[in-house]
What does this fold into?
Amino acid sequence: MAVPTIVVHGGAGRVAAANQETAVAGVREAARRGHEALRRGGCEAAAIAAVRWLEDAETFNAGRGACMTEDGRFEVDAGIMRSRDLRSGAVAAVRDLADPILVAQAVMEHGRHCLLVGEGAEAFARARGVGRFGRDGLWTAKAQARYDEATAGRSGAVGQADTVGAVAIDADGHLCAAGSTGGVLLKAHGRVGDSPLLGAGLYAHPALGAACATGVGEAIMTHVASYAALLAATRGLAPDEAAAEVCARVATFEVGAERATCGIIMLTPRGEVGIAHASPHMSWAVARGEGEPDLRAALRRDPG
Ligand code: GLY
It folds into this structure.
């Protein structure tokens, strides 16, 4: 038995002052919705409910609000994994898909493969009537402005990668991790980040717990960050310390002339929470409890 808990993040990076309040309110609401689903439908329903909410909230780089590729298009990634049977599903580099976590879940349920990409993922989704396709479902003025500024050379695109994600544990002790992202601003057509990759962007295992990473995908996959954080916790580190140790290691990876950003949220098999980031900000929220949850949300996880 475990205390039903969901942990949510809204991406590691720098959040502009004007967006900070909205980001914290967004992750708080995602955690509240996730916890409600946790009580009704278990950890998988919870992680999906939270990530779906964040995909529709245009503050975040996932679904509506996703950043653009170098040719001004949208290509999204998402993944989900559950501890109960170690099943997972993911999609990557799918064009104009507003709710990729639902297609990732359908891949998991279908069971034949773990990861579908590009046109193959789109064909799979359309054949099953899952997913909302269309540029209008993702486009926002904010993403257009970021794209215009970056292509005009007025702002750097390096290190501007974030994600939304959730990890949840239900009363039966089952765990689930899920994440969704627009990827890196000005990424190449076909580029895939960490979010759909097991071990890197997410992992869930009955003996290890569940983790979800955010930040620059190339750095996160190099360090297999989610799996590494869960392993570090089995070596006796407190979950916050385990997550912080891996974030610090990932941040040694250089992207252009800058250090990569990284954030990790995790739950141990006993339901202990770990949150850390190596970035100026990471919006996060935790909802925990049998009934009405104790709900906490913030933009930074300061040490101590
Ligand atoms: N973590 C998001 C990405 O690199 O695509």
Notes: The domain at 5-298 is CATH 3.60.20.30 (Glutamine Phosphoribosylpyrophosphate, subunit 1, domain 1). The chain has a mean pLDDT of 95. The longest helix spans residues 20-41. The pocket of glycine is lined by residues 161, 163, 181, 183-184, 193-195, 214-217 (CB under 6 Å).
